[in-house]
Design goal:
This protein is an alpha/beta fold and 255 residues long. Helix content is 45%, strand content 12%. It has one domain (10-21, 28-254): 3-Layer(aba) Sandwich (Rossmann fold).
């Protein structure tokens, strides 16, 4: 497996709370604050995914605060062995902790069995010890697949990625935010929307917004359709991505 780091530093970002929209959407108010920790790499910190999530939460009438531990190219095994990551888990009473694996590991059988799954088990135990709920952030395949591992295109890689996350989720009884499946559906329904940056791996703002919508629906058990926050995207595109996210989460829960 070829590691593909994006930026070389570790980033710990606390109190990344969202800014409520100027015209709040009609939704329940006076919700208790929830604290969410994002653990991952550049797929999480590019475009400030935690910030997008908290702004969607604010648009939906929820009080959410996010923190992030992310480093370019890091795997969950790196995080499970990191004192800084484990300290971040223990520092706060997290309601949810989002776990994002390196982009290739879950698609490769030997890598997920030897590296990802032991790391997820350790991190889930640490999260449970502080009373938090783990959420697995199912990532998306590379636009051109991963030829050196036999994945000729996105579809082939995504199928294995999805299975990689689903298998450990079933074992541990944890929820999956089906972002990768939402990307698959977006490619079919809205091919005019570019989800990947030119490197064919990292997300554009559209891709991160789709991920944030999936995470919003997964955590709050509500559809993001109709929320006013669009991350600066044209509203018709935001609406399309909201709809795709809602459908992906609904399918994940009924599968």
């Amino acid at each position: 497996m070829t590691q593909r780091p994006y930026l070389p530093w570790l980033m710990l970002l606390l109190a990344c709370s969202g800014t409520p929209p100027a015209s709040p959407d009609p939704a329940p108010r006076a919700q208790p604050r929830i604290n969410v920790l994002f653990i991952g790499n550049s797929y999480t910190y590019v475009n400030d995914l935690p910030g997008m999530f908290t702004r969607l939460a604010a648009a939906g009438g929820f009080d959410a605060e996010a923190a992030m531990v992310a480093a370019g190219g890091w795997t969950l095994a790196d995080h499970a062995a990191s004192g800084q990551t484990l300290e971040a888990i223990q520092r706060t009473k997290w309601d949810y902790v989002v776990l994002q694996e390196q982009s290739e590991v879950p698609a490769i059988e030997r890598e997920r069995v030897e590296s990802m799954y032991p790391a997820v088990r350790r991190l889930v135990r640490a999260i449970a010890a502080v009373g938090g709920t783990p959420v697995l952030f199912m990532t998306w395949g590379h636009r051109e697949g991963l030829h050196e591992e036999g994945f000729k295109d996105f579809e082939a890689m995504q199928s294995e990625l999805s299975e990689g996350y689903a298998r450990i989720a079933r074992e541990l009884g944890v929820e999956v935010a089906a972002v990768g499946n939402a990307w698959r559906n977006a490619r079919a329904r809205t091919p005019e929307i570019s989800l990947w940056q030119p490197d064919g791996s990292h997300p554009t703002v559209h891709g991160s917004y789709l991920a944030a919508c999936v995470l919003y629906s997964t955590v709050f058990k509500r559809s993001p359709v109709g929320l006013s926050y669009s991350a600066g995207l044209p509203m018709e595109r935001a609406r399309a991505l909201q709809s795709i996210a809602a459908a992906a989460v609904s399918r994940e829960r009924t599968s």
